[in-house]
Amino acid sequence: MSKYLLNKFLFTVDRDPDLTERYHDNPRETVAEWEAEHGHHILNCIDAEHSTWLKFDGTEREALATHDHPTLLELGAHPFPTLTLFIGMFERDYEPMGFQTRVRPAAGPRDHALSRHRHLSARRNGSTSRAGHAGRFPTAH
User: Fold this and answer.
1) Other CB atoms within 10 A of residue 10 CB
2) Which among 21, 50, 20 is positioned nearest to 37, based on CA atoms?
3) CA distance 8 to 37
4) Do residues 54 and 39 lie in contact, with contact meaning Cβ atoms separated by under 8 Å?
5) Phi, psi of 58 (to 5 degrees)
6) CB of 52 within 8 A of CB of 40?
7) Is residue 111 over pLDDT 70?
8) What pTM was computed for the model?
9) Are the CB atoms for 35 and 55 separated by under 8 Å?
10) What is the pLDDT of residues 56-110, one digit of tens each?
11) Where are the domains of the chain?
């Protein structure tokens, strides 16, 4: 398992509109192609610098190939590139803010980023509900 490679995939795909569309439409093929063509390049180094050991494990590959962002977060994917990529790919399939606020059954630690977003959105909209967040977020006095 490599958090570096996982985050590198999310980072590089998010910054390439054509690659983002390919990943949206054909995720399994895109993951395999990206891993073969780009996975061994080290970011911010000259092209001659390559890694000989970086590759996705089966769990990472399957999570990427099935667009399973909660599992990606569990595996150590950074929330920012994960959510910006997935929002960019799927925002057109939901009502405004729908992707960001959808709830996954059996919420656990992997849903922290989305639940924090919902909590902060509720606070901005005047809700004072703090269920499940006692002590995590400061209150204004």
Assistant:
1) 23
2) 50
3) 13
4) yes
5) -60, -40
6) yes
7) no
8) 0.64
9) yes
10) 899 999 999 999 989 999 999 999 999 889 888 888 887 777 776 764 544 444 4
11) 3-102+110-124
